Give the backbone structure.
Amino acid sequence: MNIKLIAVDMDGTFLNNQMTFDYERFMKQYRKMKENNIKFVVASGNQYYQLKSFFGDIQEELCYVSENGALIIDQGKEEFSVDIKKRDVASILEELVQHKKLSVVLCGKESAYVLDSVSTDFYETMNKYYHRLKKVKSFEGVDDQILKFALSCPEEETIDLRDLLHQKIGSTITPVSSGHGSIDLIVPGFHKASGIQLLQRKWGIKDEETMAFGDGGNDIEMLKHVKYGFAMENASDEVKRIATYSAPSNNESGVLEIIDSYFAGKDPFN
């Protein structure tokens, strides 16, 4: 077994519940990855500008499959981005305003956007995931390349609302849940797995040379695609059912544990 690519989701996977990770331990691993020509890929539903902020001095060396595969940046250079058509953006927004329990973030390449009528709490929470976040009077006036929509809803209604949106607008956009209380609307056919495939083609890396970690519904395609797909101990039941392997929880540095096992020559796949 010869791993050449390691892809990690961030929230609930690589990050603990305090949204941090053991940086020193990871940097030791990262140096080994470089020595062994292993690519490290951050694959998340979050914004590129937020994701790179976690990685200090090496942030420009890494590759990011951000916005659930809608924007791929490798070493500071754009490899791929989706562009939701303006008419589709308008029709999706028309549907979303019908659902009073949904709060909407419009995710563009340059920034993310919320209406200036949102609560301070909502704005501050979203700002943790979208470091570039602007308030606007209306989404209609936004001039940006739109990558996806991020929705917040009551936790207990996440799956029902995801399924309802699938019925209403599923032919235009795909609703996926990245965790309780959050739903992303992504372009059909473009997700974390499609991003990983693009990078595998670029780097000449096979599925059986790829390891990936995740915990939420938006990780499912990626975990099914690679040979070594790990569900975190804290993952949803849906994710645990499809993943071939399991890792300790995000609060136990599960990703780093598996990587250490691999480098120590132990079999992390039992």
Q: What stands out?
A: Residues 5-81+190-263 form a domain with the Rossmann fold fold (CATH 3.40.50.1000).
